[in-house]
Amino acid sequence: MTAGDAGRDDVSAEAAATRFPVMTRVHDVPRDNGALAARQEPHTARRRGNRRPPWAECLARALRRVLAANDPLPPGLADASGALIDERRRDVLLAELRFDSAVDRGPVPRAANGLGARVLAFQVADTMLILGLEESDDATVLNGMIVAPRRYTVSLRSLGGAPVPVSGPSPRRFAYRLGRSGPVRVELASDEGAPLVQTDWVLV
Amino acid sequence: MTDASLVTRAAGGDRQAWRQLVQHLSDIPWGVARALGLSSEDAGQVVTVTWLRLVDRLDRFVAEEEVAPFVAATAFRETTRLASVLRLVRSGARHAARADGPDAARAKEGNGDRDRLLYLAYLRLPARSRLLLRLVVSGRLHYREISDALAMPIGSIGPTRQRGFHALRKALEGTGGSSP
């Protein structure tokens, strides 16, 4: 649900505009330091001498202030973000997200790939992982396929949690029913001495 | 201000440096997600996964200025992806509902009438205009970096920004203000 969906009837823009008419001139908007704005807006047009008109500069400063006041980052989210550095590991290989059927156009047709409605592909070196995601009732079903010259033991890791072993119908395929949403990543551990492979985090 | 040591210290596991880096740049992923119409909860998910992607790549950056474009691009991609999955927004679509929703209702009483109207006018803009204005006024990114992050032709950034500012100005003037 979006913010727009929740409480859509709370107040209309038109009603608010009627209740709170403009009382001052547009060019009175700036209240902060113009030098700060100039330092914070290093766009190329400025360097070419193509400055915004003064009223646009005023609006830019006012908009920055208004957005900060009305739509700030939630404090709890800022605190949680600060703790994410604990997820950092330097002894692993990162399998980067190369393809996501939700945003990329590619050769994997939906519903015809046998993996799920949404298909992700991760790769590092000679290892590729293809992950299909299918919404099912109150869960997300993950179907994975590994393309690599070695065998891996597969685990699924949620944010802040321990890795959960997953298995499937064959050594190179796995399936898992995920009952919660949030960031997850797949880990591939080899018993042949190869480094641990971690995929990019993805939201499911 | 360039602070190479902040990124490199964070890459070395310095929690305080990481917190400072996040604090400096959090307005980018949050702004991208919110500008494109995601709820606070969904925007929070985008912010989290953006930072997680950065955590895994900290070794690739030296200066904070190098991190900002990556953060913007990742947040834009994740927002687009999440919006696509949720089937709630489409690129370039208008989101008039937001101007009628709790975002508008929460416009701070103490900010003054003009600020309230400016915020409401911003909410009425097309999603792409909101996104561009939010990144432009954040002052963190050059046009080239915005172009790369949003997969948007650099030549269209100036006109889109200009149309957005004109729309805001017109909205303010149309409700009783006068042009400068």
Quick structural gist:
The complex is a heterodimer of chains A (204) and B (180). Chain A is built from five helices and ten strands; from the N terminus they run αααααββββββββββ.
SSE string of chain A, helices as H and strands as E: HHHHHEEEEEEEEEE
Round the Cα radius of gyration of chain B to an integer and report it.
17 Å
Q: Find the structural class of chain B using helix and strand composition.
A: mainly alpha
Kindly report the average pLDDT value of chain A: 75
Strand order of the largest sheet of chain A: 1-2-3-4-7-6-5-8-9
User: Strand content of the residues of chain B, in percent?
Assistant: under 5%
Number of helical runs of chain B?
A: 11
% residues in beta strands of chain A:
25-35%
Summarize the topology.
The complex is a heterodimer of chains A (about 200) and B (about 180).
Chain A: H1 13-19, H2 34-40, H3 44-47, H4 54-70, H5 75-82, E1 92-100, E2 118-124, E3 127-136, E4 139-147, E5 153-158, E6 164-170, E7 173-178, E8 183-189, E9 196-199, E10 202-203
Parallel strand pairs in A: 1-9
Antiparallel strand pairs in A: 1-2, 2-3, 3-4, 4-7, 5-6, 5-8, 6-7, 8-9, 8-10
Chain B: H1 4-11, H2 15-25, H3 27-35, H4 40-55, H5 64-86, H6 96-99, H7 102-105, H8 113-124, H9 127-138, H10 143-150, H11 154-174
Structural features, described:
The complex is a heterodimer of chains A (204) and B (180). Chain A contains five helices and ten strands. Chain A has helices spanning 13-19, 34-40, 44-47, 54-70, 75-82, and strands at residues 92-100, 118-124, 127-136, 139-147, 153-158, 164-170, 173-178, 183-189, 196-199, 202-203. Chain A is elongated, with a radius of gyration of 25 Å. The two termini of chain A are 15 Å apart. Chain B has one domain. Chain B contains eleven helices and no strands. In chain B, helix 1 (4-11) crosses helix 2, helix 3 (27-35) packs parallel to helix 5 and helix 8 crosses helix 11 (154-174). Mean pLDDT of chain B is 83; it is low at 88-100. Classes of the chains: A alpha+beta (204), B mainly alpha (180).
